[in-house]
Amino acid sequence: MNSTERDGPRPSREELSGVIATVAREAQAFLDGLDDRPARLVRTEDSLRQLKGSLPEEGDGAVVSLQRLIEKGMDAAVGSAGPRCFHFVIGGTTPAALGADWLATALDQMAYAWVSSPLATELEVVSLAWLRELFGLPAEWAGVMTTGATMANFVGLASARQWWGERQEVDIAERGLSGLPQIPVLTGGYIHASAVKSLSMLGAGRSTVRMLSRDNVGRLDVEAMEEALRDLKGAPAILIGNAGEVNAGDFDPIEAMADLADKYGAWLHVDGAFGLFARVSPQTEHLAAGAERAHSVAVDGHKWLNVPYDCGFGFVGDPSLLGRTFAYTAAYLPDPDDPRPNFGSLGPESSRRARSLPVWATLCAYGRAGYRRMVEGHIALAQRLGRLVDEAPDLERLAYVTLNIVCFRYNPGGLSEDQLNDLNERLGEAILADGRFYAGATQYGGKTALRPAIVNWRTREEHVDQFVAVVRELGAQIFEGLLNQDRQRKS
Ligand SMILES: *Cc1c(COP(=O)(O)O)cnc(C)c1O
């Protein structure tokens, strides 16, 4: 340890060089091994224990501390950046995005406004325009980068709330919600939990959401939605359409919802966290047709765009509405009328990370065609996975493979629904404990199921094939265990 380290952080070229060399070397090794590394390591608890303890009085210095973090921490890190991660909807990081994100950290830009970083602000403007092009959304729409689709849903629904108030001549940003009735929010059973959470954060309340499903997996009942709108007798309402739901990758009929929004003067918000990427390929663009007719759209960056956490995009059709919803001012901040972009006044956050650097870099590096090829590749992998499931006598596909998610279960035959649910729940846990793949269980129409989601640029055919083999291996083990228990009980 040298004396500068003992004093606290001080400019030291030597220390910084050590840090950069250490991190570059270790990151390279980690990324090189990512294709072969287990998706989830099982020594998490042991490794993390060694990083605890009390706050050091005297620090160990940067390089020593980072080495400890690498030595103990890497074992507890999930291999979610790798090709075997099918859990939740987790994207990887493209090389271009990774490099630009490191640069964003080194430059430590504050993407609040033009004055705080012309670079981050201009790249946010450019990236949002490129994304509108990529997704086929109108060029005149406004947009803002967020931490993810939860906050992108928040941006869309906050704008919808402001619009809803203005329809009744109330400026909700100014006056609040008090004295107003509950905001009618209509959707199907595909609504994502984060949209409901956003409504609770917005003071609209979770219970204001009416899910109009026509079956037990959550498909939207369009007639029931129209009836509910008719019953409102012209009062404004918010419709939430889901372009890509998380269990099977299915879509609400966005075009039909846009027709209803037109006819009844409602606001249509579309949650396309990953599913909006269907619009990147002519093979699948019909699935999310009508999103360009919505009033707001939420998309994730850290899922299918494969930029690092955290990153999402909120788009709003009326370009002046974000300002009315999110504007704030103080003597030391830029004037709200400053014509130069001020994203701190167009979204929920003030000081913000320069997420625009990795987004700009990855779009610049791979272009529209690169993303189309990646999305089409993932769709082909999902189709392949669906075929392998269909061919396996002990696997049962539970839903049509619409996009990039395959919903299926282990079903060796002869078991009751309760036994199958129990078996598949154990299977989900066994896959996580096994660690070769990272995937989990869900509930689909009352059935416990697996729902691998393919969104990582590294995933290839061999990973999908191995996944099916691992599921069958672990499923057979659990089934065998259940049979043995049964035999013991009977004898
Ligand atoms: C992941 C997801 C969200 C939430 O996004 P975060 O990035 O986790 O905030 C919202 N909607 C859908 C459909 C999603 O898949």
Describe the structure.
The chain is 44% helix and 9% strand. It is α/β, with parallel strands linked by helices. The protein has three domains: 3-76; 95-365, Type I PLP-dependent aspartate aminotransferase-like (Major domain) (Aspartate Aminotransferase, domain 2, 3-Layer(aba) Sandwich); 368-490, Aspartate Aminotransferase, domain 1. The strands form three sheets. It has a seven-stranded mixed β-sheet with strand order 1-7-6-5-4-2-3, sandwiched between helices. It has a two-stranded antiparallel ribbon with strand order 8-9. Helix 5 packs antiparallel against helix 13. The chain is globular. 44% of the residues are buried. The mean pLDDT is 95. It binds pyridoxal-5'-phosphate.
Spell out the key features of this protein.
binds pyridoxal-5'-phosphate; Aspartate Aminotransferase, domain 2; 44% helix; 491 residues; seven-stranded mixed β-sheet; Aspartate Aminotransferase, domain 1; single chain
Helix and strand layout, with pairings?
Layout: H1 3-7, H2 13-33, H3 44-49, H4 62-73, H5 95-107, H6 118-135, E1 142-146, H7 149-167, H8 172-175, E2 185-187, H9 193-201, E3 209-211, H10 222-231, E4 238-242, H11 254-264, E5 267-271, E6 296-300, E7 312-316, H12 321-326, H13 356-391, E8 395-397, E9 408-410, H14 417-434, E10 441-444, E11 447-450, H15 461-490
Parallel strand pairs: 2-3, 2-4, 4-5, 5-6
Antiparallel strand pairs: 1-7, 6-7, 8-9, 10-11
The chain binds pyridoxal-5'-phosphate.
Pyridoxal-5'-phosphate (PLP) binds at residues 89, 148-150, 192, 194, 244, 246, 271, 273-274, 300, 312.
